[in-house]
Amino acid sequence: MRARTPRSAPGSSPWTGFTLVELLLVLMLIAMATGLVSLSLRDPESARLDQEALRLSALLEAGRAEARATGIAVRFELRADSQDGDAPFRFVGLLQRQGQREHWLTPGVQAEIVGASALALGPEPLIGPQRIVLRLGERQVVLATDGLAPFAPVDAAPPESPR
Fold it and tell me: Which one-letter DSSP state was computed for residue 81?
């Protein structure tokens, strides 16, 4: 007679695998990871508007630097009468360079200079506080300077004047 080896220990189940609690725990972790990933994804419209704001702040600072270096008054103007083929903005006082962009990278971007018809960029190192609002759909970004600091994105609400 041969001896037989038991296939399972006494009191154990022949089922091997995951319990229901373990499966629910794994599903909960997957749901939490999916939720975090979806929250971290940016709205493409917002990302394009942020890209335009960074590009415009760099262009404005380059205009300020050139105005100080050459001693020529430079202004940034929006063209209200621009059509699809026209440039929606321009730098007045700068030498026009080959390939200089005067268009938004993203179609549909609109801009508004707050409280003025143009931004004065120099040649004086202190230019005075100025703001420009960029809009794309429902989103908006405000670029501002206090006159000494570079143009940078700020909160949408204008600062209150002291009384």
Answer: T
